[in-house]
C-alpha cells in the first residue's frame, strides 16, 4: 500500500478520554474511531490487524478440527427463556422489540442458539464428537464502557461449542481447546497464562481464563513465576491424541495461577516464596466445561450406543478477538507508539523514502515495494512529500516491526537502512540483502 | 474435509415453508437454519460459500483501489437525525434503546456514519479521491421476510462510499464501481445486467441496479437482448483510467435495460422488436451517485485548491453478499440440487468412495485427497459407510461442480470416474490424470 492512497488519519494530540496506552495509541494511530460509548469503527489500519488476528484464530481452530459456521447477531428471546437466562442475564443484555412486537436481543453469547441448532439436526451418538465455532459481533450493554476496545459494548469474539457423549470426551475437547489457545496466543506474540477461573453466569465446573500480564489489566492475578517460563514452541500436536492434550494441560496448569476470583491464600503460600508473584492481567480468553446444563434445559439428547437418549456434554470456549488488539498493544509498546509482533502486524514492513521526488530514491523505493509485493508481502510505502522526521514518527506510532529507509545519500553507497522497531537497531544493507532479510524474518516468524 | 468429521445436516424432506428453489435447496443442503423470521444461521457449508463470495468482493474492491474498514452494527440515532433519515426511514429500521435510554439502531446502511468519519478526519482536497468500504451485517425489519436469504432481515452486504472533490471525479468513482461490479459478478459465474434504477430512500441522480435474470426474481425487467451478449472477459483494467472506465460503462449501459420502476414504454418501443425482452430479475447490487446530499446535511467539506470550503461529492455502492447465494442458486440448479459455479463452490470437488472399507478404494481415495490438498485444493471426501446412491444424492444436492468416484472395479482397470455436475458427463481416467484435470479446470476458472 502506498500511504498517499491509504486512509491513515493519525492524530498528533493525545485524546483526553483515553486512560490507557492501548486506547490512546489505537486512536492516535488512526486504527479506531468511537461512534458511541463502547462502539467503534475499525479504520483501515485497525481493521487490518483485526483480520490478522481473526485469521490466526481461524487457522488454529480448524487445525484442532473445529468447524466454522456463523450465527446471527439478533436472537429470539424465546430461546433464552428455555434456558432461564432471559431474565437472569440482567441489564447487560441489549433487548430489542421488532416491528411485530416480538422480543429479540443482540446476542452476548450463543449457548442457547447453538444448542438449538444441535438438537434440530443431531440425534445419534455416531455424529459425535462435534465442535462448532463462529467469530461474530456481540453486544454487552456495559454500564461504563471504557479502555477502548478492551471493554467495549459491541465486540468481536470467537466462541466455540463442543458436543460429546460423555464427560470424558468433553474433557478431551476442553483440553484440545486449551492446547489450541496456547498455540493461538503464542502466534500473536503473546504470553497468555491459563488460570483457574470462576464459572460466572455461563456456569461451569471446569474453567480456565487466559491472562496476559499487563499493569493495566482489570484482574489481580497470583501465580508461580515458573508458569511464565513455559512456552508452547513448535511442538507437533495430534489433536485426537487424548494423552498428549491432557499432558499439555497438566504442564501448563499444574502450577499455581489464579485470578482474585478464585485466589486461595493457603494454596498460594505453598509456592516457594521466591516464585510467588502478584500482578495484573488482561483476560483474552476462557474455556468452560459445563456438562449437561444446557442440553438438560433444552432437551439436546442423542441416542446412545444402547439406544437410550442421553443429554450431551457440552463446553463453550471463547477468544476475545477485538479485545486482543488492546491486550497486544498493552503488552508491546513504548513511548513512541505500538510495536506489533510479526504475527499480527498490519503491514510486514514500512518503506520510508527520505527524499520523495529524487529519481534514484523513488526508483529504489518502487523496486523494493514491487519486489516485496511479488514475494507475497504487504509493505507500507510512505511516498508522501513529508519531512523525514514526520515519516519516522508515523512509522513508530503505527508500529510496523521493520522499516527500510531509503535516501539518496545511502543509495550512493549502494545501501538502504533496515531498522527494527523493537530494538531501534539499524543496519546498512544493499537493497536486495534487506529484502532477503525480510523474507528470512517472516519465514521464521 | 472428510464428511465423517464435518457437519452437513442434509434434509430428505422438502421444507414446507420454502417457496423458491434457492431457499428450498439451501435448507435441504444443510447450508442455513432459520432462527427467527428472516434471521438465519449459516451452517458450515453455507458459511463456506458466503466466505468465498465475500473474498471475491474483497479482492475486486481492493483491485479497484477501494480501502476496506469496518463500521459497527449498532449506530447512534443522533447521526440519522442530522441527515433527517431517522424519522424518514420508517418501520424497517430496527430501533433500540440502550440501558441509559439512548436511542440507537441496527444499521440498515451507513451513509451517515461514513460521512461522520470522513468529516472527522479529512479537511483538504489533497486527501481525495477516497473510497472506503466495508462488509458488515445489516438489519432491515421487513414486514414479511421470505425467500430465505433473498429477503431476510439480517443480511450481509458490502457497502462502499466514495468522496470526491468534483462531480466529474465522483462520476469516475461511479464508473469504477460499475466496472468492478461487472468483474465481481462474472467471477461468481453470474450474468448481472446493469439497469437504470430509481434512487429510492437513499436518493441519487445516477443509479444502476445489477440484476440477475431468474423466473423467481422480484422485479419485472425490460431489456434489449443485446445486453445479455456482453461479457467482461479477461480485459485488463486500469482503474485510474477515466476514459477506459467510462467506455465500459457506455458499452454495458447504452442499450435499453430497466426495471419496472424506471421502465419507459416509448423508449422500449425503439428497441428492434426481435430483441425486446421482458423477464424477471433478482437485484444483487446497486450503485449511486448522490452528489452533496449527505455532505451538505452533515457538513462534510474540504478545503479546495482555492482555499475555500467545498462539500464533497459522494456516492454509495452496494453488493448483497448473503443474497448472492440465493441468486446464484436460482440461476444455477436442477431437480437434483445446486450446481455451484467453480468461482464460489464451497469445495473444489467431491470424492466418493463406492466401497468404504475396501483397502484399495480407501487408499486410492486417501491418495487423491492428500494430493488435492497438497496442491491447495479443498476436496470433500465422502468417507461414510453409506450406499453409493445416497452418496451421489448428497453430492448432487450440495452441488460441487466436480466429483471423482472411486470403486474397486474401476481401480482394477486403473481408473476413477470424473463427473461434471453441470453436464452429468463422466470420464474414466487414471487417478493422476483426474487430478491434473482438476488443476487444469481451476487454473482456468
From TrEMBL, chains A, B:
UniProt EC number: 6.1.1.15
The encoding gene: proS
Keyword Nucleus recorded: no
Subunit structure: Homodimer.
Biological role: Catalyzes the attachment of proline to tRNA(Pro) in a two-step reaction: proline is first activated by ATP to form Pro-AMP and then transferred to the acceptor end of tRNA(Pro).
Compartments, as annotated in UniProt: Cytoplasm
Catalytic activity: tRNA(Pro) + L-proline + ATP = L-prolyl-tRNA(Pro) + AMP + diphosphate
Record lineage: Bacteria, Pseudomonadati, Pseudomonadota, Alphaproteobacteria, Rhodobacterales
Origin species: Parasulfitobacter algicola
Name of the protein this chain belongs to: Proline--tRNA ligase
Main location class: cytoplasm
Amino acid at each position: 500500500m502506498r500511504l498517499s492512497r491509504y486512509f491513515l488519519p493519525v492524530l498528533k494530540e493525545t485524546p483526553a478520554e483515553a486512560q490507557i496506552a492501548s486506547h490512546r495509541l489505537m486512536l492516535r494511530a488512526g486504527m479506531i474511531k468511537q461512534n458511541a460509548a463502547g462502539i467503534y469503527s475499525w479504520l483501515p489500519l485497525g481493521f487490518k490487524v483485526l483480520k490478522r488476528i481473526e485469521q490466526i484464530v481461524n487457522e488454529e481452530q480448524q487445525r484442532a478440527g473445529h468447524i466454522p459456521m456463523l450465527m446471527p447477531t439478533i436472537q429470539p428471546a424465546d430461546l433464552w427463556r428455555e434456558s432461564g437466562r432471559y431474565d437472569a442475564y440482567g441489564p447487560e443484555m441489549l433487548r430489542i422489540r421488532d416491528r411485530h412486537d416480538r422480543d429479540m436481543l443482540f446476542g452476548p453469547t450463543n449457548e442457547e442458539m447453538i444448542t438449538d441448532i444441535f438438537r434440530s439436526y443431531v440425534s445419534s451418538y455416531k455424529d459425535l464428537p462435534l465442535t462448532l465455532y463462529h467469530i461474530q459481533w456481540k453486544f454487552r450493554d456495559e454500564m461504563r464502557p471504557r479502555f477502548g476496545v478492551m471493554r467495549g459494548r459491541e465486540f468481536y469474539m470467537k466462541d466455540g461449542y463442543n458436543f460429546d457423549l460423555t464427560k470424558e470426551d468433553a474433557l478431551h475437547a476442553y483440553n484440545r481447546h486449551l492446547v489450541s489457545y496456547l498455540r493461538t496466543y503464542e502466534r500473536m506474540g503473546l504470553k497468555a497464562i491459563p488460570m483457574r477461573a470462576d464459572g460466572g453466569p455461563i456456569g461451569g465446573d471446569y474453567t480456565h481464563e487466559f491472562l496476559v500480564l499487563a499493569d493495566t489489566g482489570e484482574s489481580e492475578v497470583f501465580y508461580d513465576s515458573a508458569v511464565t517460563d513455559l512456552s508452547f514452541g513448535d511442538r507437533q500436536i495430534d489433536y485426537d491424541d487424548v494423552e498428549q492434550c491432557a499432558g499439555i494441560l497438566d504442564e501448563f496448569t499444574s502450577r499455581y495461577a489464579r485470578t482474585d476470583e478464585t485466589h486461595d491464600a493457603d494454596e498460594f503460600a505453598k509456592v516457594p516464596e521466591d516464585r510467588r508473584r502478584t500482578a495484573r492481567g488482561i483476560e483474552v480468553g476462557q474455556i468452560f466445561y459445563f456438562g449437561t446444563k444446557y442440553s438438560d434445559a433444552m432437551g439436546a439428547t442423542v441416542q446412545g450406543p444402547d439406544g437410550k437418549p442421553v443429554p450431551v456434554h457440552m463446553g463453550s470456549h471463547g477468544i476475545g478477538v477485538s479485545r486482543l488488539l488492546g491486550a497486544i498493544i498493552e503488552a508491546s509498546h513504548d513511548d513512541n507508539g505500538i510495536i506489533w509482533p510479526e504475527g499480527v502486524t498490519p503491514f510486514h514492513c514500512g518503506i520510508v523514502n527520505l527524499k520523495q521526488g529524487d529519481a534514484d530514491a523513488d526508483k529504489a523505493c518502487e523496486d523494493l515495494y514491487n519486489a516485496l509485493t511479488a514475494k507475497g508481502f504487504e509493505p507500507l510505502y510512505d511516498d508522501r512529500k513529508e519531512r523525514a522526521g514526520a515519516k519516522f514518527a508515523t512509522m513508530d506510532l503505527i508500529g510496523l516491526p521493520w522499516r527500510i529507509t531509503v535516501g539518496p545519500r545511502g543509495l550512493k553507497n549502494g545501501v538502504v537502512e533496515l531498522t527494527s522497531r523493537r530494538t531501534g537497531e539499524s543496519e546498512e544493507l544493499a537493497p536486495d540483502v534487506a529484502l532477503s532479510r525480510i523474507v528470512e524474518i517472516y519465514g521464521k516468524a
